[in-house]
Give the backbone structure.
Amino acid sequence: MCGIIGVLSKKRANSGYSESVKEALLHMHYRGPDHLGFWSDERVILGHRRLSIIDLSDDGNQPFHSACGNYILAFNGEIFNYKELREELKKQGHSFRTDSDTEVIIAAYKQYGVSFPEHLRGMFACVMYDRVLQKLLFCRDRLGKKPLFIYESENELIFSSEIKFFHAFRTIPLELNESSLVNFFSLQYVPGPQTIYKGVRSLKPAEVWTYQLNDSASESQTYWNIFDKVGQRKDLPEIEEIDELLQKSIRYRLIANVDIGLLLSGGIDSSLLACYMHELAGKKVKAFNVGFSESSLDESSYARQVANSMDLDLISLTLEDLSVENFSKSIYHGDQPLGDSAIIPTYLISKSIAQHVKVVLSGEGADELFHGYSHYQLENYYYQLGKLPFEAAGFLFNSLSGLGIHKFDKIKNKLRSINSFKKDTGVSRWTSILNPDLCSNYLSIKQKDDSYETLFHSYLQQFRRNAGKLESSLMLDLMTWLPDDLLVKTDRMMMACSVEARTPYLDHELVEMVIGSSGHFGEKPFQSKNYLRDLLRKKLPKQLSETIANRSKQGFETPKMTWINSGLSELSGFLFSEENLKSNPYINLKQVRTLWEDNKQEKPGANKRLLWNVFCFLEWYRQHETKFGFRR
C-alpha cells in the first residue's frame, strides 16, 4: 500500500515540476512512511511513497526499474497471486532478482502487454512508463479499491493517489465542478469518473489507459466488465462453493511479511471473517472494534462475544465526544467531499490499529454482494408494489402507515420523493438524501443536465441485458456507492494512519460467482445474506451463531447531531454563520441558514442527513480555500 504522484510534460522539459512532486511526496508521508522514491527523465517524473507489506527489503522500493532499464513502475496496492504468477512467467523465460510483487507486474506487462491486469489478483493502481514504446500506462483494479486521479491540460498530464495533492502544482486552476457538487449534495459522495474539480478525473475501476508520448494519442480499455459477468449461470451456487472461494480469498489476503489484524464489528460479515482467520492465520489474531457510549448505536458486546469464543485479542475503542481536530482530519483525509459520517470512527479506530499492526481485513463489500442492507428489502417492496394498481398501492401503504410501523412509514415517505427523479436510479433512490433538483435549492448554482441520474440509469440498462429489473437495481451499488463512498472511506481513513485494509468479500472470483447467479436472493427476498448466515452457523457455537446470524443489520450509525451540538458546536456555529456562508460562492445562504435553524430547533421533518452533508462540505471547502496546506 503506497502513494503515487507524477507528471508527464507534453511540450517542455520537466524541470519546473520536480519541486511540486517533491512537496507532494512530503505531504503524503502517511501513505508510505517506509520509503520515499523519486525518478525523472526529460519529460516524465514518478514519485512514490512506500508502506512495506510484502518483501520488506529495499529491493521492493519504488519507482521500480526493470533489470533492462526499459520499464519504470509506480504501484499502489498488493498483488496476492504474485507467487503463482511469477512461476508462470519463469516458464516463459522471465527471471527475477527480488521477492516483490512489484517486479512481477513488470514481467507480466512484458509478457502480456496491456492485457496484463487480467492476470493480477489483488487491489492496485499502477503507472507504468514504457521507455521503448514511449508511452505511459495507467490501470486500476477491477472494483476500484485503490484510487488514481488524472489531470490533463494542453501542457501536462499529472496523476496522483489523492486529489488534494494537485494543489502542489501552482499552474492548475482546480475550480469546483458544479455538477459534482450537486451530486455530492444528493448522494453524500461524488460519483466517478467525475471529481469535485474540473479537469480532474478518476481512472475507472478495471480501466487501462495509455498515453503515447510521441503523438499524444491516448486509448482506454476495460479489461474486466462486470456487466458481462451477470447471469452467466442458471443455478444457485452451493454453500460449499461460497465457502471454498471465501477460504481461498482469505488465504490470499493473509499473505504478508507483517502482522495482520481484523476489523470486528460483531455483525455477520466480520464475525465470519473472524472464524476464517482463526482457522487459517496460524497464530492468535488481533481484532479491533469501535463502540459508542450511546447504547442504541453500540455493537461492541457482540464483538466481545465473538472474540471470546475464538480467543481473539480484542482491542476496543469507545467513541464518546468528537474533537474538532479529529473531525477536520477526517475531512482532510476524505480527499473529496464525503458526507459518510462513518469516516470518523473509521479514522479513529485506524489510529488505534496503527499501534499494533500494518494490515487489517475488513468486511466491506459483503452487504453489496449479498444484499444485506435494509434498503435492498425496501427496493423489493417497491417492485412488488409496482405490480398493484396505483390506487390499491396508495391505499395499502396508507393503511400500513396507520399501524405505526416505522418500516412502512419510511417507504411511504420515500415513495413521495421517488416520482421527482427524472430517471430510474435504482436502489440509490433509497440512499440518496434528496434528488438533484431539490439539492440545487441549497446551492447558488443552477442544476446541471449531467447529474448522476443519467450515469446510474445507463448502468441499470447495461445490467438489464442479463438480469431482471430488481436484480439490476440491487447490483447498482457495486458500481457506485461501493467504489465512490465505502471503499473511499476505508482506504483513505486507513491510509491516513499508514494501515492497509484488505477486503476478502471483494475477491473478483467470488464476485463473479455471486453476480453470475444474479437471482440468488430471489428465493428468500426478505431474508438477506443466507449464505453467510449458514456458514456462520457452521463455524460458531450454536447459541452465539444464532445470536449473530439473526441480528438485524445495524449499519455504522453515528451520533451526528450529538457531535454537532457538543464537541463540534463552536466549529458548526462558525461554518453555518451568516458571515461564513456569505463568503462561500456555492451556497444558497437563505436555504442553508433555514436548514441550520430548523435542525437546531429540532423542528419536525428537519433533514439531519442533509445538514451533516452540508456541514462536511463547508469544512472541506474551508480546507480547499487554504489549498490543503500547500503554498500557492
Summary: The longest strand covers residues 71-79.
